[in-house]
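Researcher: Here's the sequence for the chain we discussed earlier.
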Amino acid sequence: MGRSKKQQKIIDQLEKNCAMTRQFMEDWLRFNQILSTYPKPGVNKAELENEFLKIKSKLAREHKALRDSLGADYALDGNTMNIVSGATNLESIYSQSDVSVKKLQNEWHRAFIAVNETLGGLEDKKARAERGEKVFIGVPGVDMPAGGVSSGGGMSPTMKRNVMIVVVLLIIVAVVAFVPPVRDLYLNAIQDLF
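Model: Thanks. This is the structure I predict for it:
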């Protein structure tokens, strides 16, 4: 059985999101590789500093695009980019205490796990969509199940407004029916008309 256009659009978006997350993870690994290589003897520190600045810039751009594209599927914590922005340059990182460097490495690792979890969730969602299951993706304008028919997720704004109108009308009818002075006022007004 072929896929509907909506299903294919969701699968295509999930594939794009998976590819973006994989690229971010590769660059996140490169960030750590540069960070770990710097203290080793015999390395070209000036070249590593230059690579470090480039990878930080790339990560910042990718992070913004990833956050916008993933929408509700974005599961990285705010600490991820704090690691990048706080690491001004390699020399200043390694001029700190060993405890500070270890803390940075632990924070990097936690963020790496979060990136992997995000990728795993996206890949699972894509596989389910390819099998025809209804999945929701967190992108504005594409929030629909892969099956093509919405099956939940709350009320639309129009439905909420209609429910509120019905509730207000029911309250008015209840007040008119059960509050004697108001009921008498309306009954007298109706009798005067006829």
